[in-house]
Write a structure and sequence with these properties.
Blueprint (H helix, E strand, L loop, with lengths): L1 H18 L5 E14 L7 E3 L2 E12 L4 E21 L5 E24 L4 E15 L1 E8 L2 E8 L10 E13 L2 E10 L7 E2 L2 E2 L5 E14 L1
């Protein structure tokens, strides 16, 4: 399904690019912050939503005065934290903390609608993303069933805490003035990428939920 959707999206992009008239390419850079969350329950530990970052390149292809295709290539850091103490349903006690980080290369593909103001634009976007895990650490420390526990592994390494491939949809809004764009975006991960157990808790429903804000600067228009 993911391969078919990606192929269809790329073909649609190429067809629109071929047939559009008076088109313009806009290239730029993007830097932002991810307020990172997931559907995964960390009980009995308390889940925390860390503020992480993303950086990358953006590209935009104007179809008409109001519509554009947006894409790019981002290095994005996601994850969750959890800490505290409690008891699992099986009676095992836990007192500790877990830090999970995903470092991914992400390819977004959005359709944007632009509403022109006097000297600026308001932009609404809807689309999808495909990401691939390239790094990140998962660290667990504390006491598990009375025994001291400390472990650090690669999130996408041999421990396979999470699966590398993720796919989802996103919605966004932005404000553009001259070369600058201020953007807010929300990502719904559609795949359960949880794969292993961390300190006794099964990763059985890990879908990314990311609220992000970023600032973009357009370098050139072709």
């Amino acid at each position: 399904m993911i391969k078919k959707f990606t192929l269809i999206s790329i073909l649609l992009f190429l067809i629109l690019a071929t047939h559009a008239q008076d088109c313009k390419w806009s290239l730029g850079v993007e830097f932002g912050l991810n307020y990172s969350n997931s559907t995964e329950s960390t009980a009995p530990l308390k889940k925390e939503k860390p503020l992480l970052y993303k950086v990358g390149l953006k590209a935009e292809y104007s179809i008409s005065e109001h519509f554009a295709l947006q894409s790019g290539l981002l290095y994005s850091v996601k994850g969750i934290d959890s800490k505290g103490e409690g008891t699992y349903p099986n009676g095992i006690n836990i007192d500790g903390s877990v830090t999970l980080r995903q470092e991914v290369i992400q390819l977004p593909m959005d359709l944007a609608y632009k509403l022109k103001l006097s000297e600026s634009k308001i932009i609404f976007s809807l689309g999808s993303y495909l990401s691939y895990g390239i790094g990140g650490k998962t660290k667990a420390h504390g006491h598990f069933d009375g025994n001291e526990f400390s472990k650090e592994v690669n999130t996408f390494g041999s421990a396979e805490i999470l699966n590398k491939i993720d796919f989802g949809v996103g919605i966004g809004a932005a404000y553009e003035i001259k070369h600058f764009i201020l953007k807010v975006n929300y990502e719904w991960g559609l795949l359960n990428i949880g794969n292993k157990t961390i300190m006794g808790g099964d990763m059985d429903d890990y879908k990314n939920r990311i609220l992000s804000t970023s600032i973009c600067y357009n370098l050139s228009i072709l």
